[in-house]
Amino acid sequence: MQQNHIDALKKIVGEDNVMTSTEDLFSYSYDATPGHAHMPDAVVTPANTNEVSQIMKLANANKIPVYPRGSGTNLSAGCVPTKGGIVLLMTRFNKIVEIDLENLVAVAEPGVIVADLNSTVAVSGLIYPPDPGTVATATLGGTVCENAGGLRGLKYGVSKHYVMGLEVVLANGDIMNTGGKNVKDVSGYDMTKLFTGSEGTLCVITKIIAKLVPAPEAKKAMMAIFNDLDDAGKAVSGIIAAKIIPATLEIMDNATIRTVEDYMKIGLPLAAQAILLIEVDGNPTVVEQEAAKVMTVLKSNNAATVQIAKDDAERDKLWAARRAALPALAKLRPTTFVEDATVPRNKVPDFLRAVSAAAQKHNVTIGTFGHAGDGNMHPTIVCDIRDAEEMKRVYLAMDEMFKTAIALGGTLSGEHGIGLGKLPWMENQHGAVSMNVMRSIKRTLDPNLILNPGKLVGEC
Ligand SMILES: Cc1cc2nc3c(=O)[nH]c(=O)nc-3n(C[C@H](O)[C@H](O)[C@H](O)COP(=O)(O)OP(=O)(O)OC[C@H]3O[C@@H](n4cnc5c(N)ncnc54)[C@H](O)[C@@H]3O)c2cc1C
To answer: How far is it, in rounded angstroms, from Cα 75 to Cα 261?
Structure first.
């Protein structure tokens, strides 16, 4: 980027909102994804839609790459400025514009932290359900762009189920509005859905109209230990077949159980092949009935032990093991890859076995935990990225893992998005025709290929 471009950016957003020092550029050269880093030429923090529009006009006219960024917690290298250019930091867009209690809708800027939105609507007895592990740091814009989900995705879905409308700035600087507060809206192509999950490759999101739902009145958590992986798998299908949709239905495999026990010393049985954690929520009477039914299904599928939390303190204890899964695994080695391949829920045991076999075959350490109810697994590979020989084995294991997920009828990503990390397998999942259609959408909306170039659909 030339000095006159930097000067023009300073004119648009003010001197203080353009960073060019080496230290600042280094801080925005990477995100939460291991193995990807590149220095940008400038980090720009606009304050309003008009400024974003002017930045995009300048970038488009001069073919300068632009990488939108929220809190940088994504796990797919979505914010890494691989071709230099501008990191567009959206954190000054931090206003909750409106909480509309008659329509159960929030209107908010993309830099609002998800937990802040939730604490604001909690006083009205409402929730914004997408709850990634990073709710306390991730931005609403980042979660919408990654289509993020979380622990309660089985019952409540992912971000796309809550985005009703958007204000976006296109690559050429045009400002566009999609959707709105209407519960029913079938007018035209669904551009809101197209932009949700577009990972900063099609537009910059500057405002979000989000659906809110009533907070559940009661919750009940249970934990079951299984000595046989298939029994755990049958219990998962059995709970759904009993017409119960828990808010959460989580699984930890043997490698994760052993690592968590070593980390926390809470008495988890080291030989257990799976632990299921289940939470039902809703009306208090229904919650009690559903919890009883879940207990029956767990026992009839040979759970070795089943615990039910009697109060909040016990509930916290049960969840402690699941909350510790990622930190416990991450502590083992310097580098942690958290993947999110997803399979139909009845294929979860097959997938867990395949991951474990791939780990053994390539001599790498993988612990798998995740959202068994919706089939969204988190195979977590711990390694040392500085060891080239080990990394070759890690990528071979990843290759097997993703190809197995696809062969089982699954998908590369249930909630983390594609970015750069999973790009090599996109054609395996979608085929050449779909990839061509996706790339032609990218070329139409961003003909100069300046928005997060090379990500999600690759080079166009
Ligand atoms: C420990 C850990 C646990 C996690 N747990 C979960 C989990 O449970 N579930 C889950 O789904 N994810 C999880 N994640 C991944 C991550 O937190 C989510 O993807 C989150 O949504 C990213 O939000 P962010 O604000 O950090 O976005 P960023 O990382 O800043 O950006 C994400 C993507 O969105 C684009 N973007 C950001 N803002 C805009 C905008 N305004 N306009 C256009 N594009 C934009 C960026 O270019 C990038 O491609 C986890 C990550 C970590 C590190």
So the answer is: 26
